[in-house]
Amino acid sequence: MAELGVNIDHIATLRQARQGREPDPVYAAAIAEQYGADQITIHLREDRRHIQLRDLKILRKTVQTRLNLEMAALPEMVKIARRIKPDTVTLVPERREELTTEGGLDLRTEHRGIIKELQAAGIEVSVFIEPEPGIIKKAKDLHADAVEIHTGRYANAGRKLEKTREIERIKKAAQLIKSLGMRVVAGHGLNYHNITALVELGIIEEYNIGHSIVSRAVFTGLPEAVLTMKELVL
Ligand code: PXP
Description:
8 strands, binds pyridoxine-5'-phosphate, 8-stranded parallel barrel, alpha/beta
């Protein structure tokens, strides 16, 4: 049985379009939890284009499940995380000009200190990486607690053959992550159509999904959008 992390960044994107108060991601988080989210995921970006520090602070007080903070591996962000203490920090790459997180993190030896510092504050550390054996082994070497597999290539795969190849790559990566004793997470570009093939692998423990849930919520409401995805990942 897998768990669902609902990424609410795009609720904040809509709010920031008018720089106002609505829709409030704090309200969205409460509804997502009420309808089955096992975790609330937010990305506090360096340019603060959607989630604001205010959101992180309030969500830390109001989230009743778990709070997963996606962030760049930067000293400023480590300081914020150590102060606010989300349950999990997911280290992600970040480029100012990108529309969304485009690729997996290039894990380097410098990340060892950051992971250690976050863990010392009682925070679980996950790393968002491509499903490549070498990078997964590096994550283990750096003592990451969990690995989030970047599923973007699978989500964007056009032809059936390409999709099948990507599913196989994700399966092998998930098996390796598990065998190394780390938690297996997946995310990026997952939607109501492409999630099932991954769930059928029966090895991924948690999914973080944002864009497709918020997009569907525009038409059906957030309760239905969360509930339907929750049923698919179960
Ligand atoms: N997981 C990580 C680490 C991400 O950076 C993102 C995008 O913010 C997601 C999951 C969610 O991706 P999507 O919005 O495409 O569902």
